[in-house]
Design brief:
Blueprint: E1 4-6, E2 15-18, E3 24-27, E4 42-48, E5 60-64, E6 67-73, E7 79-83, E8 97-99, E9 102-104, E10 111-112, E11 118-120, E12 137-140, E13 143-148, E14 168-170, E15 174-178, H1 182-187, H2 193-197, E16 201-203, E17 208-212, E18 216-225, H3 230-238, E19 242-250, E20 254-260, E21 265-276, E22 279-289, H4 292-295, H5 297-321, H6 336-347
Antiparallel strand pairs: 1-17, 2-3, 4-13, 5-6, 6-7, 8-9, 9-10, 10-11, 12-13, 14-22, 15-22, 16-18, 17-18, 18-19, 19-20, 20-21, 21-22
The structure holds FE2/S2 (inorganic) cluster.
Length: 357
């Protein structure tokens, strides 16, 4: 059951913090940086379906939550995801080939099925240790997602809070690295104050945060587009001045954004993947309704335009902020939503390997 958890906030344990001026302020305490998992157990965006399109085609590997994962499509068209580094001598299976529904290592030809079992070693019988880790993989709306963590940590793949009847088609992902830890990058979405200073948005009414169970939070707010940039002027001229935003945040790794303007609705997925303590790899995937028109060349062009407008919006964070340092003791009453977000993120479990016992 959902519970509105902020604005107004329920009574929660509070701390008296001394500010640098010696005044005390009653704020929720934000967790220490050591409380956050290095890699949250969650769903990670692997890439568009087109990156692993053809049954039996070339496998592809990517870094996800600190490990390399290979995804391939068997001859039956089904996707499989395994640890990319071969358990023999560590070669990347993405350099190998798909044979039937198995993947073959490029180095010495060991062959693994979709359950990670080694089913063939050219030089003899597979040794007992010969096994690859397996990861849940889901393909939806033209995108591939991989869960990193044990089966005990798994939860269903989330999606947008509302979906059009026709479903969605994705546009080209936009990838960039943010020079901030994953929890700072992710919690930025809850920092409503920065909408005014960084993005030239005027907040209309109070933002609302709801719990979506243990792994999710929903943020809703309404803003007015006030900026003088070309992108903002185009928005006001063609789709409207005010926008209702609903963002479903999941697992520390995904933000499903719906922005409803008067004359258009925009769907964007933003994904987060920690690269090290200070860097987060972000991917932005725009979507639009899966109609005949939207699949036409002109429809694809309009999706490209939405992509550019969204990049232009997020660019302000990248270009204007520089290094953002997590200092829990400096957060103030106006940062309440942000502090709540940090407390939630600190509770999220770290990736655990699947138990083989
Ligand atoms: S490293 Fe893969 S078979 Fe040897």
């Amino acid at each position: 059951m959902r519970r509105t958890m902020s604005t107004p906030l329920p009574k929660a344990p509070a701390l008296e913090l001394e500010s640098s001026l010696g005044r005390s302020c009653d704020v929720l305490s934000a967790p220490d940086a050591s409380s956050f998992a290095s890699y949250p157990a969650s769903w990670y965006f692997f890439g568009p379906s087109s990156s692993v399109q053809k049954p039996g085609g070339s496998p592809v590997s990517r870094q996800l939550a600190g490990e390399r994962v290979v995804v391939y499509r068997g001859a039956d068209g089904v996707l499989r995801a395994l640890d990319a580094h071969c358990c023999h001598m560590g070669a990347d299976l993405a350099g190998g080939e798909v044979e039937g529904n198995c993947i073959c290592c490029p180095f010495h030809g060991w062959q693994y099925d979709g359950d990670g079992r080694c089913v063939m070693v050219p030089s003899g019988a597979p040794p007992p240790f010969a096994r690859q880790g397996v990861h849940p993989v889901v393909e939806r709306d033209g995108c591939i997602f991989v869960f990193r963590g044990s089966s005990l940590q798994a939860f269903p793949l989330p999606t947008f809070s509302a979906l059009p009847r026709e479903g969605l088609v994705p546009g080209r992902p936009f990838r960039f690295d943010g020079p901030w830890p994953w929890y700072v990058t992710f919690a930025n979405g809850f920092d409503i104050q920065h909408m005014t200073c960084v993005h030239d948005r005027k907040l209309l009414g109070e933002p609302i945060v709801e719990e979506l169970g243990f792994h999710g939070r929903r943020l809703r707010y309404r803003t007015e587009v006030c900026g003088r940039s070309l992108a903002d002027r185009a928005l006001r001229a063609f789709v409207g001045t005010e926008v209702d935003v609903t963002i479903d945040f999941w697992g520390g790794t995904m933000a499903w954004v719906i922005a409803r303007f008067r004359h258009a609705t925009s769907y964007v997925l933003i994904t987060f993947d920690p690269r090290d303590n200070d860097t987060t790899h972000l991917q932005l995937v725009p979507f639009q309704r899966n109609t005949l028109w939207n699949r036409s060349p002109i429809g694809r062009l309009s999706l490209e335009l939405r992509r550019l407008l969204t990049i232009s919006f997020l660019r302000h964070d990248l270009d204007d902020l520089g290094e953002v340092i997590y200092r829990p003791g400096t957060l103030v009453e106006a940062d309440r939503n942000l502090i709540q977000a940090y407390r939630w993120l600190a509770d999220l479990p770290a990736v655990e390997p699947e138990s083989t016992g």
